[in-house]
Amino acid sequence: MTENPKSEVVILGIETSCDETSAAVLLNGTDLRSHVISSQITTHQKYGGVVPEIASREHSLHFQPVVQQALDEAGLTFGDLSAIAVTYGPGLVGSLLVGVSGAKAMAYAAGVPLIGINHLEAHIYANFLEHQDLSFPLLALLVSGGHSHLILFEAHGQYKVLGRTRDDAAGEALDKVARTLGLAYPGGPQIQRVAQEGDAQAYTFPRAMLEPDSLDFSFSGMKSAVLNTLNSARMRGETLSVPDIAASFQQAVVDVLVRKALMALERTNVKTLLLAGGVAANKLLRETLDQSLSVRGVRLVYPSPIYCTDNGAMIATAGYYHYLEGDFAPWTLNAVPGLNLT
Q1: What secondary structure letter does DSSP report for 177?
Q2: Could you give the count of Cα atoms lying within 13 Å of 23 in the half-sphere of its Cβ?
Q3: How many domains does the chain have?
Q4: CATH number at residue 53
Q5: Alpha helices, H only, the chain
Q6: What pLDDT, in 10s, does the model give residues 177-191?
Q7: Do 90 and 219 belong to one domain?
Q8: Is the domain of 272 the same as that of 225?
Q9: 114-118 and 83-89: which strand pairing?
Q10: How far apart are alpha carbons 125 and 109 in whole angstroms?
């Protein structure tokens, strides 16, 4: 495949890794012409979490309408595209296959290159959509429902994972604790909402830091501590304050994330931290990082909340930089549910 000779680079980005069907049209890496998201939250709420089979079925129903709406809102057709970028992993295999199969068919029919995007990479690139003045090297704190990573971002396409979760991801732990507290799915935003009425010092939950030099994360023990606290109270016939538990648990999660980020910044001497992933929308995490980094002369950058969760705009943005490098995928591109960043 060869590059599109047009002077303007128009990327259609498609995201279907979990429970959001999303498409966006991006012009020249910064001009977002359209952005459409079809959410499945209400569909999965009754189950307390994402049901993979239902998610893939919903993607199949909404994929074509979402892509067409994105093109219509941008005032473009497939003939105007330079390339189509699509998430091929990590994620739910059925959901990924819907996006990859659809994108391959569209790119082949339109005669434009296909670009495979790593979902984790795309979350980081969401920052480039709104902050065009970023310069390397960068440190990324990627925190979502399935991942908690500290990543040294040395240049486009050059990543070094400095730390990752050894068990539950931060977002996963927040969701599980929220479900135990009887809060609705998705749990992270509900924990944040309820915590506003609670006392973050009411309960002391462990902050697992692991080995002294480790930048890895562990949130399973913290989650278990909450469950043990709740179970002990029930056995004694006590009623605990849900807002206090939510606030205390949220504080513990944020404390670990911030401390590990500061360790990584000190070790790498990088002066810009990119916050990415669904948990990047957490207000307490943003405020705590901002306070901690400002006194150290480190810049904190994060996307608008709509670009923190899964979305087509971040796929299109990552796709733009792959396009500039001529990094195109073969027609044999397949879904890779366990795809790593490096």
Answers
A1: H
A2: 21
A3: 2
A4: 3.30.420.40
A5: 41-45, 52-74, 93-110, 119-130, 170-180, 187-195, 220-235, 242-268, 283-294, 312-324
A6: 999 999 988 899 999
A7: no
A8: yes
A9: parallel
A10: 28
User: What is the rounded distance in angstroms from the CA atom of residue 24 to the CA atom of residue 14?
Assistant: 7
Same domain for 62 and 168, yes or no, is no
Do residues 187 and 204 share a domain?
yes
Q: Is the dihedral of CA 251, 254, 256, 258 positive or negative?
A: negative
Confidence (pTM) = 0.93
255 closest CA partner among 309, 200, 306, 297: 200
Q: What is the token pair recorded at 179?
A: 């479900």
Q: What is the pLDDT of residues 56-99, one digit of tens each?
A: 999 999 999 999 999 999 999 999 999 999 999 999 999 999 99
Find the angle CA(123)-CA(128)-CA(129) to the nearest 5 degrees.
90
**185 and 282 inside one domain:** yes
146 belongs to a structural domain: yes
Same domain assignment for residues 254 and 168? yes
Token pair of 127, please? 């920052």
Instruction: Show the domain range for 202.
Output: 136-303
Report residue 6 as tokens: 């047009």
Residue found under tokens 């082949």 = 108
Same structural domain, 67 and 166:
no
Both tokens assigned to 116: 């495979």
Distance in angstroms between the alpha carbons of the first and the last residue of the chain: 25
131-135-137-138 Cα dihedral, nearest 10 degrees = -10
Is the link from the previous residue into 186 a cis peptide, with omega within 30 of 0? yes
Give the bridge partners for 114, in sequence order: 84
